[in-house]
Amino acid sequence: MGTISTKGLRVGLGARGVIGAIGLGFICLFQPLFRDASSLLWAKVLLVLAALVYVVFSLIWDRKFLPLTNIQLIVAILLLSISIISGEILFLALGLFLHALWDLWHLATQKRYVPWWYAGACVYVDLAAVALILINVH
Length: 138
What we know:
Order of helices and strands: HHHHHH
Helix content: over 70%
Radius of gyration: 15 Å
Number of helices: 6
Shape: globular
């Protein structure tokens, strides 16, 4: 049973997840919206977009996960709002870190409404984004 429960983690965090993360990373890096890295607009967009993608996946592949994915979208929007109101970027880092945990949960429990390579790629991208945000903390 241990090998079955790690299959999602092996697939998502393996080569497919790494390749997906590299692809997603390049897409993010070359968007005109993200030219001014100091504004952290990229992190704000990434936080909401990462959560929204899961809602779309649940709409397309398995609607029974819609309430759960909507909750994580609301949490992402709430953390973004707190970050904007307070001016504290650590709320963005917290949101992206929590999203990385969300991705890992999907892999560990083998949720099939989200492609495993995508969840794995998100783990890498989310954690890299957290590191970039923390580097920008003065």
